[in-house]
Here is the input.
Amino acid sequence: MNNFLLFAVVNLTLVLFLSPLYISVIKKVKAIIQGRRGPSIIQSHRNIFKLLKKESLYSHNSSFIMRVAPYIDFTGSLLLSLFVPLIFIPNNSNVFGNIILFLYILMLGKFVIALSGLDAGSTFGGMGSSREMSLSAIIEPTIMIVFAAVAFSFDSINFFEIIKSSLLSQNHIFLWLLFIPFIIIFITESSRIPVDNPETHLELTMVHEAMILEQSGKNLALIEWSSAIKQLLLIGIIVNIFIPIGISTSMNILALSIAAIIFFVKSLLFAIGIGIFESNIAKLRFFRIPNLFAISYFLSFITILIEVLL
Amino acid sequence: MNSLLLADLQKILIVAMILLTVISVSRRNLISLINMYSLQSFILSLVILLIFFEDKKMILLYIALLTIISKCLFIPILLKRTQKSMKIYVDLEYNLVGPTASVFISLIIFGMLFFLFLGIKEQLRANSLNYISIILGMSMLFIGMLIIITRKKIITKIIGYLIMENGVVLLSIFIGDLPLLIEILILIDLLVLLAITSVLGFGMNSSVERFHAKLNPFRTWFEKVAKE
Amino acid sequence: MIYSIILLFFIVSLILVTITKSKSLPNTLTIVNSLIVIVSSFYLFMHAKFPLNFLSNNYILIDLLSLYEIFITGVIFFLATIYAKGYITLLVNDNELRESNIRIFYLAYNLLLISTIGVFVSNNMALLWIFAEITTILSAVLIVILNAKENIVAAIKYIFITSTAMLFSLVGLVFLFAASKSANIESTLNWNELMQAAGQINPQLLLFSFVFIFIGFAAKSGIVPFHAWLPPSHAKAASDVSVLLSSVVLNIGIYAIIRIYALINPTIYGHIASNVLLIFGIITVGIAGFSMLVRRNLKKLIAFSSIENMGFILIGIAVGNLFWVLFYILAHALTKALLFFSAGIIHRQYDSVKVGEIRNVLKLQPLASFGLIIGGIAIIGTPLFPIFIPKFFIIASLSKQSLILAFIALLFILIATCSFVWFIIQILSEQGNEPKKYTIFLSMKLPIIILIILLVIIGVYLPESLSNILNLIASQLGFGGV
Here is the structure.
């Protein structure tokens, strides 16, 4: 119990205060590659706090969904942060850490945001919602198979156990077949290039941004924050499953601080890598996106076959 | 060398091979296809070198060197030159199935072969890792055939054929000790490829006169219109 | 001793063909080469003890089946070379072939002869595979040698489909190699050793390797669904080359299928292999028959008839009636040669072989049209011509196994027959403007006359020596004789 409380506190603090940093890091990396200086590292923090102080405007045609959706989304993200061990693995829990529950709470957030996009009655909101939902529908079996492959490799469907066993046994070479599918899922869930451009200002090319076009003030802050949290959690999953060095299982202060520093370094490196990757690649045509999903499906399925055999 | 380390290296190479194969099925850019093919041949020769370290037969070393020279250097250069003379850059048309569906069909192929050959796994005397390599080799055979059937441009078809051949080499390394046959196979395929590309080059050059002859009526019509 | 002399002569003639400037020397040399093949195979039939061994590791071995096929090859090459003497000159006159390419033509011709013999004498299945690939490339060169661009497309299709399928049979050979490890102390790909140990090889692995090897060589023989290369290549190539393709190169695939079927026949999975062959054979006959209905190009029609006959041979192998299958191979080779020779003359006369453009052919080219009529009657299986008897006995054996399949096969053969006859009638009855009569050299007419006489003789009288030889071959391979 104590264990889990510590874990909850640590994760929530990390997630709340650290998550906007990664968005800025990726933007800064892309800017440097493009030859600019880019926004400052804490610009996302400043954006969110500025938005929190502003008032939310609602359109006349909107219903209660638009008022409630950001809160549901944010709460969902905070709940999700209890599922993924970032620097500390607590003792096993049946409810928290379950992969399937994780996926569905993720989907729940996306679902209510999509509804809120439709709610204001504007065309761009509807367009963004339909695009986002179709992408989600296509990627859902892929996500399932990828996580199933991870579960097959580690014989468990709980994140805590998975990362713990990844920490203990270092010889999972075939797991790296899943690296590309995980990257593809990360890109889709955090709406990055090549699936969706998070910095576009042209409505016709938006997928995620179009849904939140009508939001303003506190609601917008909450939505942006929650997508930053989701991104950090996904980074945490990828980095901790594939390179589990440094994550601590004990409540020792020293171990925790070392684990924090190592995690910070790992995730920053990953974010820089994502920034470089995004600068080198163009946004895909919408109908070419299922191709990416097919590749990740293929790789995960083969991993399952191999893991079953070996 | 430590056999566990060899097994790990083999696993890494198999992983890389799987990745390259699946990406080759869905790429449309011709130059990237050729590059991916030469990378695949390079990994194949690394696999051959790995087996050489285990079995210590000299002929495997020669085959690895031959593979590197012919397939990583010679054939890609030949293909790129042909592609430049034919002036095609992207293979946009698909015959029956698009790139996404091709990836799924490759998956089905891999799965079917996996289960089909599970029955004779003992007769092949292969441990699990070798079995995966054998199945990978055989599925590369079928995936290469899939590429040949579903693409329209001839350079992609040639690359499909070469992927098939890579699959056969991978397969035969892990099933039995047939090194001489593999070497002859490489040479014969070089011959076949040379034949096809020279015929292509010859054909494309010889059709230039007919192409101009076809264009000529348009040119005179154009001049007539321009005069008015 | 004498074999090395023969080999030396082949090599010398190859070199001479490459460097000579004379116009008639290459042809004479090729005729001499094929005559050597015929004479030496006769000699070996009479006097030699089989099997003949050449190398110490059993890679090259001549047994009766190889010798029989070599004999057929030699006869067809001989007749085709006589035909080529006049045909090449006509092609050059019509600007379909460049004079500088004649040398390449004869070079590829002789090399094709040598590599085909190489296929038949290889005991090692891998060596057989290598020679088969070489014949693919050489025959593709022969197809491409004409000046047309469509030939390039046809040749590329040919090389692609055949080489791709040969990769499959290579996989099958690898499996066979692994399978033979289970029976012998030392694994081998030599056919005679495999035949001796046939009972002890793991039947499951053998079945897998059979299927893969069958795929490869079936594509070489033009079995559906790997037949897509056959009609374009036969139609676009020079008629001389089409003769070689139809009567010799298709035999290579059938030869390999017979060899590998003989390995799997005595095992417990033999009936599965037989069913596979049967299904493929019947489908081939069916599709070829239906395709022949809509043909307007004479050479494509004859090509589809080749596909149909190859399917029928597969049926014959599947029911185990090897005696009549071997006789059918000989009869088909001769009849197809007759058909293509006549088609070649018609092509030269009208510059096309399509239905609408062949007019008054009986008046203009009586010999060619007579050859076409006799060849057509022969190929559909009329009595008095050699194809009738084997067809009859093979269908009889098939009906012993399954009456329904025999009826279906008969129906498909009937469709093919009707299409062929209707086509010939269409061509012969077309009247209209007459183009000028084309003079055909005697060297082109001679093979047609020889073939007609041969066909009638063999159709009526089966020599005792031939029947003994065929019986021996059938029993050597493990099938019953007649």
The two ends of chain A are 37 Å apart (CA to CA). Chain A touches chain B through 20 residues (CB under 8 Å). Chain A has a mean pLDDT of 87.
